[in-house]
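[Solved] Which block belongs to which protein?

Original post:
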Amino acid sequence: MNRKTRGSIKIIPVESIEVLNHRERNTKIFEEITGNIRAVGLKKPISVTPRPGPEGAERYLLVCGEGRLNAFKALGQKTIPALVVEVSDEDAFIISLSENIARRQSRPLEILQAIKVLQDKGYDKKVIAAKTGLSAEYVGGILLLLNQGEERLLVAVQKGRMPLNTALAIVRSGTSDTAIQATLQQAYDSGELRGRQLLEAKRVMERRMAWGRTVDRGVPRKRTGITSSSLVRTYQREVDRQRLLVKKAEFAQQRLLFVTGALHQLFSEESFVHLLRAEGLDLLPKYLAERIVPTGTAL
């Protein structure tokens, strides 16, 4: 991407700035931005690139800082400090997208749709990865889910509720409840899904089966595919896993009791203690020493 990195700070009219890549903002976050600017002023200038306007008027495309620009407008400010840089329309758009992707407060679907926009502009996954700082494998997986309309899985991946590989495996398994449950089971067995993440993944799949692939936008969706029997099977699998976990814990506890009992007897023999000391093996972790070494015995 060819761009000029140097620029100059100028005070420019807010009405002369055109937003190239508009994004919706959380009301609370916008109020925080506005409150901070009202209290301490603008800490970081926005970035713009100049464009010719009608009859020679100065016009600018916004590169970075839409939230700050909107806050200035909300506060009734007529001008705003801006870093003026010379970049092409394409570069300005990509810089704006990259900023949105890097921003922690970005909504997951905004980030994912930004990747889709770059694909629509003709970039392949390697170029998109280079421009956004994401891996090519991640971009490729996200694009597959986007093209399949899997918004629920996309949000789950972006929020860390489900690994990307698991989401892709679910899409490839089709719409069969049995195949999807088998995919989740395989992800659990392989270690990709663990603990709370497993429960989150199940909730995502239940919503996907009940309300469809796309995220709710206030329009009720017809329930499809979810049955009481599938919920019972899911519950029974979880119960079976919990029982197996309890059995493994009991077995491990029995082994631990046997080992500590045997070591306790050995440490009761003075000759064994002398042998350990001679070999330089007389140090034990405190929690083991308290369980094994008889009271009053020193190694």
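(Second protein starts here: sequence line, then its structure tokens.)
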Amino acid sequence: MESSLGPLLPLFNRERAAGNAVAVGLLVHTLGSTYRKPGALMLIASNGDYAGLLSGGCLEGDLRERAHAVIETGQAQLVTYDTRGKDDLIWGLGLGCEGAMHILLFRVGPDRDWQPLTHLSRSLASHTPTAVSIVVESTSAARPVGAITLPDGASPDLRATLEQSAHNGRAQWITAEDAKLFVLPLSLPPRLLLLGGGPDAAPVVELAARQSWKVTVLDHRPAYAQADHFPGAERVVLARPNEFLAALDVAHFSAAVVMSHHLPSDLEYLRSLAQTSIPYIGLLGPAQRREKLLSDLGGEQARSLRPRLHAPVGLPLGGRTPESIALAIVAEIHAFVHLGEAAVPQRAQAGS
């Protein structure tokens, strides 16, 4: 599911503060090879500024022109771009993408409390799964194209569908007698916990924040647990390694990386992580260091950690600078979150 809202929020917040309506571009259907997939979002302001991409920049100019009319009239438009033909020369560029996209442009403004963006942004802030429905095709004046239904205003049957989509993260189509509705779930970003706030944690935070991930940095050293060191982090916490479970609600973290460079601290971090259900746990350092830590843990704690432990953490991309290592770490977690465990080599088996 591609409904990532984070990159749209700065522009949305700017236009809402100014009282300006905006146009939302929602990719509802694709055929063949396309840059983005259903659920992808784009936001276009009345002055032509936009956030988000639905193509590689090829179609956004035309969408900006169409968005102006949508904002002015309030009438939604369903736009189709088909680049599958051999003679495709859209806009004289010859895109050659071999795909088709159906994009719904609809107005969001103060007259309707900027819905559904208000609801989705609040859910994103609270990290709460949700979904909304949008009319894409209609023969009924009572339910026009672009009409939005939020969970609180949905019928029991529709509310059940929205809840299902919210929790499985998959878009759905609903066909009614007079309309077709696209159910759009909010894609919640991964939450990453960094246990250790040394200088090499900064590029990890920066790269993760560029993906709109929510990052918490925790360190027991006051000189390292400084919020101004990590402007892209959601939280920076000062706590001892054996006390961090009391300082944080770890239930919703997608991944944790132990990177304090201090063996006794890493041991305590791993001891605590063994009590959690965090599915991905990364550990800096070579295999020998990993095995020493697991041996010191011993017993059930080591057995609980080993199937989830990725150590040395990060994809083998090459490079030894902090930035290269950060790229490897974020890339591996990205693959794990979006493609699943099978896509990431597991390197915590004894002797590996």
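Accepted answer:
You had them paired correctly. Confirming on the second one: The mean pLDDT is 90.
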